[in-house]
């Protein structure tokens, strides 16, 4: 090495990584006791946030899972009809969620492959939000990620858009969906969104789930109908988690959005 040269620092991509935190620390800081995770299909939530969910439930946070579709258009086995696939995938999700410490799995009735952020769907999501009343909502990101287009299935984008619309303004507007108020489901304010599958430039939070990676893999294995090469899938996911961590552990990445902070003024 020449005298004028300095030792090489860490790779540029590691210099710009967001702060690494644990899910338990995040929950303590923001007073999170309940979380609600939305996915367009069975396995979406487990790919994006299973390690985080396992860590949250271990820390005493109550997590509810809500799927927009039953995933009846998925799978690789020829000859299986869509109703049978829907029943199988619902069972797979319930088994996967149970491994992560999740007791409640809700299922809406959107059509797999054709999810749209309609007023009707937003209303269904608002209903679930008002029933669960979480501090944080986990969801796919509504923006397309060009760095890996597979993250941005149209159903994922539609799910993210519908969830974000529901989180603001509809869930907190007592005049929106008045039939819900008539049922006793009162308006309230979502504090935070934890968005998976984000475009890389939107990622601003890494959660260290080291020690939960085996539970994440166990949850993903429950979705056996979707993985013709489970070993390759597991290797890819673990490699991604190591890269996100940037060190010797495993992490998941998110776009963390504060919807309502103590100083938030409605409309601004």
Automatic annotation (TrEMBL):
Keywords: Zinc. InterPro entries: GlcNAc_PI_deacetylase-related, LmbE-like_dom_sf. It comes from the Bacteria. SUPFAM superfamilies: LmbE-like (SSF102588). The keyword Zinc applies. The keyword Zinc applies. This is LmbE family N-acetylglucosaminyl deacetylase. It comes from Nesterenkonia lutea. The lineage of its organism: Bacteria, Bacillati, Actinomycetota, Actinomycetes, Micrococcales.
